[in-house]
Design goal:
Elements: H1 2-18, E1 23-26, E2 31-34, E3 41-43, H2 46-54, E4 61-62, H3 65-68, E5 82-83, H4 92-97, E6 102-105, H5 113-116, E7 122-124, H6 135-149, H7 153-172, E8 179-185, E9 191-194, H8 199-206, E10 210-211, E11 222-225, H9 227-231, E12 238-243, H10 248-257, E13 264-268, H11 278-290
Parallel strand pairs: 3-6, 4-5, 6-7, 8-10, 8-12, 12-13
Antiparallel strand pairs: 1-2, 8-9, 9-11
Amino acid sequence: MLGRALALLGLSLISAQALAGAYEITDSFGKHWFEQVPERVVVTDWTILDNLLRLGVVPVGAPETAHYRTLPDQPTLPASVNDIGLRVAPSPVRIRALEPDLIIIGTGQKELARPLSRIAKVIYFKNFSDRYRTNGRKARERWLQMAAVFQKTVQAQATLQAMDQRMAELAGALNPDQTVVLLQATPQGQLRLFGDNSLPGHVLRTLGLTPGLIRPATHWGESPLTLDDLGALNTTPQVLLFAPQSQHAQWKNAIAKHDLSAHIQILPRLWPYGGALSLLQIAERISHALR
């Protein structure tokens, strides 16, 4: 009996030592234990990639890297990051060749977890949903959860505090009585309204401004809108239209035909699907346009 007890005690001590450097994180699946900070990370989602780069973590692989480099207001993607194929169908062959110790999947990619788990440990962060109070609030939560994976929680919290301080400064410089509508022109030449559940809509509220149109929450926080819809409003809100540079002349003419030129500003394209720190970039763009 004594020998068995000592053996069990020895195993317990070994287990405790093995877990001494271990830590727990939370993702959209639940809780996971890590014995050490991952070093070779593959991401399959651009929102995740945005967060990683802003945390100072450079993955070994990411999807559609050439396209990502064309997005506005995104962190610089180092040349060392390997392309793993499409976001909707990343290449298992390319991922396996990178020998990752962690794969991080994002919104709309839950079904990738099982096949990719044959290559390496997989964690999942869902950043956008119509069930979230706002996707902007969820972005902050996900930022801290991702920081915990890389033991960068203190840095991430300090960054959020600095962002909040700057947001307050921007809000203080704006007229709080303004009613604003935020629109995005798609590459196909259609208009999308940024609602409360979008990242820009969340920023609008954070800046103390009033949205000129309220629509039900959607997955990405956007809904279709036309210039006729704007012309039919009983009020005349300030409208910020973010559009690709190649479409500015087209939209300027269309707006003039609807007699809305006095109320609509056409601005450079916005990327509304970034991580938590992209909220500040959106706020800077909005506040600059409304001053």
